Amino acid sequence: MNKMGILVVGLLIGAIFAAGGVYYYMDTRVNEAFQEGIQYQQSLTPTAVTPASVSMSLTSGTFNHGATVDSDGGVDTETDVTDTLTISNDDETRTANDCVLLLYNPVTGTDGLPDNLETSATEVSVTIQGVTKKLFHDGDYTSGAVIGDLAPGDEASYTITFTLEEAVDGTFQDGQTYDCNLYLYQPDANYAIPVSFTVST
Questions:
Q1: pLDDT at 30 over 90
Q2: What are the residues whose beta carbons fall under 8 Å from the beta carbon of 164, sequence distance 6 or more?
Q3: 3-state SS assignment for residue 13
Q4: pLDDT value at residue 160
Q5: What is the pTM of this model?
Q6: How far apart are CA 90 and CA 157, in angstroms?
Q7: Using one digit for the tens of pLDDT, what is the confidence trace for 119-148?
């Protein structure tokens, strides 16, 4: 082999080794960057918060509007039916932080009312320390009512009002009973518990 051939072979071998070195370096850096990315992502992932053990109950659990809705499904006179909601933090150590009462489940997106009650003549509200907050108003669910913190052992009671406003015939269906739910949401734990009730028309 002449000198030129030896030189070419040498250059090719050198190029191969150089390419291998570059590949090894780049592969190592990619793996390191990947691991750094995972560690960074893990540092951004919030620590799961365990929800406090909270219970809810309604005194009767029934809102009877049988006399409110006429046989044609209309309402002649706006009528309120009330019930008392009791919320208890049964947890021995955990506080239920920033609790919110809603008529839908913010975790699953489940509505608390059936379609037949989701009308502009339906209104649901809660009274907290003399202040009334709407949970369902003008045909839409609201962002709810802030209950606040419930320390271990705390118990509080609120008035829930289910109102049917004046409505034309066909707005509701006479002689029906509907299953519904209220929800208490703990935002820091992204956790909601329901309390069920019925509405009769």
A1: no
A2: 65, 68, 69, 75, 78, 79, 121, 122, 123, 172, 201
A3: helix
A4: 98
A5: 0.76
A6: 15
A7: 999 999 999 999 999 999 999 999 999 999
